[in-house]
Amino acid sequence: MLLKRPFKKGVGEHDKVQxxxxxxxxxxxxxxxxxxxxxxxxxxxxxxxxxxxAISKLVDLEGNSGKDVGNDSGGKDYVS
Length: 80
Prior knowledge:
The chain is mainly alpha-helical. The chain has a domain at 13-45. 78% of the residues lie in helices and 0% in strands. It has one helix at residues 4-65. The protein is rod-shaped, with a radius of gyration of 31 Å.
């Protein structure tokens, strides 16, 4: 006589443990991807700040020189 129940129960438990392990691994992968994405966003934020500072300095220089640099019409420049 074959005992199928204990073996079947063992397979079910194994499947649950395996699924739990796979979910934990997926969470680790997602966590690493989020860390990478956040680091890239941080680098872009630093780059944007540097570009803004450079443009602000150019605008300040333009305002201090009394000339409209980049505006050939002689009218108001709307960059502030």
